[in-house]
Amino acid sequence: MPLNDPVIAEQTPAVDFTIAQKWDRYSQDEHDIWNSLYAQQIDVLKGRAVPEFYHGLKALDLNLGGIPDLSVLNPKLKALTGWEVVMVPHLVPDDVFFTHLANKRFPAGRFIRGRDQMDYLEEPDVFHDIFGHVPLLARPVFADYMQAYGQGGLRALQHDCLKNLARLYWYTVEFGLMKTDAGMRIYGAGIVSSRTESVFSVDDPSPNRLHFDLERVMHTDYRIDDFQQVYFAIESFEELFKATQQDFGPLYEKMSRDKHIHPITDILETDQIYTKGSQDYANAGGRRA
Ligand code: PHE
Ligand code: FE
Hints:
- By secondary structure, the protein is an alpha/beta fold.
- The strands form two sheets. The protein has a five-stranded mixed beta sheet. A two-stranded parallel ribbon has the order 1-2.
- The chain has a single domain, classed as Phenylalanine Hydroxylase.
- β1 (84-88), α5 (94-102) and β2 (105-109) form a beta-alpha-beta unit.
- The chain is built from 14 helices and seven strands.
- It is globular, with a radius of gyration of 19 Å.
- Phenylalanine binds next to α7 and α12.
């Protein structure tokens, strides 16, 4: 919990959990942390992130320096896709999160990590949330996917199938890769905002890299404590959007009867394999945290 952020502590969140950013209250040191993270990620992502990510950074002028001021960022984002970023004090309940997405609002943490957490932190901060998630929200098809995800989340809550839908988010929005003509590229926010996983996810021989398959992903376990042992790659955002346009009702129906979960290292006969991983990193005990 970012309890050391006084601008969060002094506010009573609204019913939708939002707070004011109060951009003037960020210290120079906080802006410097953003700038260090930004410079580091631009460097490490060279040749590793999808072109759409860079287009978004540029279209939204996220390179101006310092933590973005929402009153400057939001008009640009709104003009492109109708989305806006809102600030929240900490992770919000699932239904609140889905309602924001369904209404084209992306909830971002206000606080920024400290210098002792440059490589890894447990709760998303403003760098992960804005640098990681917002550039792709400038891309109409991805923005539409996120909105549909929010609407779908509200439905999944009613079907008691949230776990399945959460796995879809994990393996796409957070840890998704894209197979492009130029090679494997990153689009997931959890990777794009991480110095070490940016390299690991595309270059390391350890993890499996499989073609994305909706039902397969919804039945696959994931880990939150270290680098992923499997990544799923789409070939385009259009592919992802199309695959998720179908009515999930029948899928949820099936899932409520068939609750099997594939272990993270499994490769199935039906999988389309890009890279069969050695799992050397995980077998050696990992080391990220
Ligand atoms: N099509 C899904 C449904 O019927 C909603 C959804 C869209 C979920 C996109 C995730 C991503 O519930
Ligand atoms: Fe995230």
